[in-house]
Amino acid sequence: MSLVGFIARMSTKELAHAAIDALPDDATLQDAAEKLALLAALDKSRDTVKTGHWKTQADVEKLLPQWLEK
Q1: Three-state SS string across the chain, please?
Q2: What integer is the mean pLDDT of 3-7?
Q3: Which has more pLDDT, 11 or 28?
């Protein structure tokens, strides 16, 4: 099984524990918070892709001029 497949099977609690356990002993609470924030962002991104609510780079390049006008 790939690492991605293994991670996908882990619960949120297991992922959080693994992330914190991987921090060095001298890590700060800020370090832990940043690591957990990154995991949360990746989880949200994965859900976004699964539901089809994303744009390709080509789509963004076409839409960018409109976004910059506003």
Answers
A1: CCHHHHHHCCCHHHHHHHHHHCCCCCCCHHHHHHHHHHHHHHHHHHHHHHCCCCCCHHHHHHHHHHHHHC
A2: 56
A3: 28
For 36, 68, 69, 70, the CA distances from 65, given in Å and listed in that order, are 34, 5, 6, 9
- Whole-prediction pTM value? 0.65
Confidence band, pLDDT 50/70/90 cuts, at residue 1: low
What gap in Å lies between CA 46 and CA 34, rounded to an integer?
18
Tracing tokens 């390049």 back to the chain, one arrives at 61
Instruction: Please provide the size of the chain in residues.
Output: 70
Determine the Cα–Cα distance for residues 14 and 10; give it in Å rounded to an integer.
Answer: 6
